[in-house]
Design goal:
Elements lengths: L10 H9 L15 E5 L7 H8 L4 E2 L6 E4 L9 H4 L3 E3 L2 H8 L8 E4 L6 H10 L4 E6 L2 H13 L6 E5 L33 H9 L13 E5 L19 H7 L1 E7 L8 H5 L1 H4 L1 H9 L1 H20 L1 E11 L8 H10 L3 E4 L10 E2 L6 E3 L1 H4 L4 E8 L3
Parallel strand pairs: 5-6, 5-9, 6-7, 9-10
Antiparallel strand pairs: 1-3, 1-4, 2-3, 7-8, 10-14, 11-14, 12-13, 13-14
The structure holds S-adenosylmethionine (SAM).
S-adenosylmethionine binds next to helix 5 and strand 6.
Family: Belongs to the class I-like SAM-binding methyltransferase superfamily. RsmB/NOP family.
InterPro entries: MeTrfase_RsmB-F_NOP2_cat, MeTrfase_RsmB-F_NOP2_dom, RCMT, RCMT_subfamily_9, SAM-dependent_MTases_sf
Protein name: SAM-dependent MTase RsmB/NOP-type domain-containing protein
C-alpha cells in the first residue's frame, strides 16, 4: 500500500478507507485511468472523424462491445459526435453492469435508480424496437436531467420515467393489448415537452432539490410514443399486481444501481477538492448516513427483486468498494429471500478486475481493471 500521508486526501476519508480495507493508492491512479465512450449503434463510422477532431487515438475495448477508451484528459463534450448525440461518456464498468443483465430485444426492463441515466440510455439501445424500459429515481431534478439525456440521444421511444421511491415503487410493465379504451375515458395523449402547469409551478417554488417520500404516488415525467402509455386510460397506468401475478407479469430484467458512498468513483471523489473536503464529510462519511445507506440498499434490492418475473435477471451494483455496501447487502438479501439465487456472470470471464468476497460477484477498480470502481452481482428468481 502507498503511504497514505503522501496523498492529498483528508484524514477522515483516509480513516474511512482504512476501516473498510480500501487501498488509498487507487486515488492516485486517476492519471492513468482512461476515459470511456460508447458509440450509439450505427454511428461507429464516426470514429475517425472523432479522432481527427479531438487529436487523439481511441482504442476499441476487446471485452465490451461498442466501447472505446481514450486518454483521460480528453474533454468529449467539445466534440461534434457528443453534441450530436452519437456518443456518450460512460465508464466501461457501468457498461459491464448493463451487459450482465443479458438484455434481449423485447424485454421489459426496470432501472430502479436511473438518474443521471448513462446506463438507462445503453439499456434503451439494447431493447431495440420492442419491449420497454422503465426508469425510476427519487430525485426529481436528477430524473429531469435523465429525461434531457434520453431526448438528446433520441432513445426514449419505449421509455417511461417515474419520480418515485424505488423501495415502494409498484408499477408493473405495460402488457400488450391492455390499452383498449372505452369512449369518454380520459387517456394519455402523446407526450409533449411542454411541461404541465402543475410541474412548472412546483419547479418555480422549488429552491432545494426535491426528493419524494416513500408514500408519495409515482409521478410520470416522460413517456415515449411506443412505451405503452399513449392511449392508456389514465387510471390504468399505476396498476399494480400481487406477488403471484408478478411471477409472470413482472419485469424481465431489473437493474438496481443503488445509491452509495461513491468511494469507488475516483473522479467523483476528486471533485471534492473543488467542492471542499468538508462536503465529503457530510455527504460520504457521516456514519449515520452510512448506516442508513445499508438499509436503503437492501430495501431497493428487495423491492427490485419483488418486481422481477420468475426466470428474470436482476443486477445489483454500487460504485462503492466497501464490503458493507456490497457483499454484506447481498448476503443479507439472500438470507431473507428464498426465491433469489446468485448466478454466474458469464461475460465476466473476459472482464478485467477480480471476483468479490462472495463467489460469482465481481469487482472493478482503477488499479486492477483500469476503470472506475464498481461492484456487480447478478440474481435470478426461482420457483420454490
Ligand atoms: C449511483 S446513482 C445511479 C446512477 C445511474 N444508474 C446512472 O447510470 O446514471 C444512484 C441514484 O439513486 C437515486 N436514489 C436514491 N435513493 C433512491 C430511492 N429510494 N429510490 C429511487 N432512487 C433513489 C439517487 O437519486 C441517484 O440518482
Amino acid at each position: 500500500m502507498e503511504d497514505a500521508t503522501k496523498l492529498p486526501l483528508p484524514e477522515a476519508f483516509l480513516n474511512f478507507l482504512h476501516s473498510n480495507g480500501i487501498d488509498p493508492s487507487i486515488y492516485t491512479a486517476i492519471d492513468s485511468t482512461p476515459r470511456f465512450i460508447r458509440f450509439k449503434p450505427g454511428f461507429e463510422d464516426y470514429i475517425e472523424e472523432f479522432e481527427a477532431e479531438m487529436k487523439c487515438k481511441v482504442e476499441k475495448l476487446e471485452w465490451l462491445e461498442g466501447f472505446y477508451s481514450l486518454p483521460h484528459h480528453i474533454q468529449i463534450a467539445a466534440s461534434r459526435a457528443y453534441q450530436e448525440g452519437k456518443i456518450y461518456g460512460i465508464d466501461a464498468s457501468s457498461g459491464a453492469a448493463v451487459t450482465a443483465l443479458h438484455i434481449s430485444p423485447g424485454d421489459h426492463v426496470l432501472d430502479l435508480c436511473a438518474a443521471p441515466g448513462a446506463k438507462l440510455c445503453m439499456i434503451l439501445d439494447l431493447v431495440g424496437d420492442s419491449g420497454s424500459v422503465t426508469g425510476v429515481d427519487v430525485a426529481r431534478h436528477r430524473l429531469a436531467a435523465c429525461r434531457t439525456m434520453v431526448q438528446k440521444y433520441a432513445v426514449g421511444d419505449r421509455c417511461r420515467l417515474f419520480v418515485a421511491d424505488g423501495t415502494t415503487f409498484s408499477v408493473i410493465p405495460y402488457q400488450k393489448g391492455e390499452s383498449k379504451s372505452e369512449e369518454n375515458v380520459d387517456v394519455f395523449k402523446e407526450w409533449t415537452s411542454r411541461r404541465p402547469w402543475k410541474e412548472r409551478k412546483r419547479a418555480s417554488k422549488c429552491v432545494t432539490p426535491q426528493l419524494v417520500s416513500r408514500d408519495q404516488p409515482p409521478e410520470l415525467i416522460y413517456y415515449g410514443r411506443h412505451s405503452g402509455v399513449v392511449g392508456l386510460p389514465k387510471g390504468e397506468l399505476f396498476k399494480t399486481a400481487s406477488d403471484i401475478e408478478i411471477a409472470s407479469l413482472g419485469y424481465d430484467k431489473v437493474l438496481v444501481d443503488a445509491e452509495c458512498t461513491h468511494d469507488g468513483s475516483v473522479k467523483h471523489i476528486q471533485k471534492f477538492e473543488h467542492w471542499g473536503w468538508r462536503t465529503l464529510d457530510r455527504r460520504v462519511l457521516d456514519a449515520e448516513r452510512t448506516d442508513h445507506l445499508h438499509v436503503l440498499q437492501l430495501n431497493l434490492l428487495t423491492n427490485g427483486f419483488r418486481l422481477l418475473k420468475v426466470g428474470g435477471s436482476l443486477v445489483y451494483s454500487t460504485c462503492s468498494l466497501t464490503v458493507a455496501q456490497n457483499e454484506d447487502v447481498v448476503e443479507q438479501f439472500l438470507k431473507e429471500n428464498k426465491t433469489a439465487e446468485l448466478v454466474e456472470i458469464d461475460a465476466a470471464r473476459n472482464w478485467p478486475g477480480r471476483g468479490g468476497r462472495i463467489p460469482k460477484t465481481w469487482r472493478f477498480d482503477p488499479l486492477t481493471s483500469q476503470t472506475s470502481g464498481l461492484f456487480v452481482a447478478r440474481f435470478t428468481k426461482v420457483l420454490i
